[in-house]
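pinned: reference chain
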Amino acid sequence: MRLQKKIQLLCIAFLTIAFANAQKNPASPAATATGKINDATISINYNSPSVKGRVIWGELVPYNAVWRAGANEATTFETDKDLVIEGSKLPAGKYSFFVIPNEKECVLIFNKTAKQWGAYKYNQAEDQLRVTVKQQKADSNTESLIYIINKNSVVLCWEKWNIPFTVK
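pinned: its structure tokens
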């Protein structure tokens, strides 16, 4: 009986350690990209998944379906000033950011419901802005999803694609 209790305690200790270690190294860690374009401060909060040898576009992220543009909670895009995205006005505020990819272009969505888990309860009626852009084939593979804020654009980079959009 004593040996059985020791084995149970050892198993519980092992599982506790394994769980704690899993929490320290999440599969898709939280990340933030911040920057200024003109006078506007932009902040993009997302969880950064990794490729891990998978085919991303068209498989893990299906074509012609709304994707949360990251992992876990929906990615958020926040600006403290009005912007012009690909020629269309985006008022200052905080938005969920989604992408609908396909083989030739991507629809970028700024949705007024900023706090969402994934795209499971996405509601198109809440879209503030939709724009269509052409993705670019990347020169090299980007293992972990990142957002880059440049002087006049934002770029989502992952696997073999860069998805840029102009911002003024």
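why pinned: The beta strands are 30-37, 40-47, 75-79, 83-85, 88-90, 93-101, 106-111, 127-133, 136-149, 153-166. The chain is about 15% helix and 45% strand.
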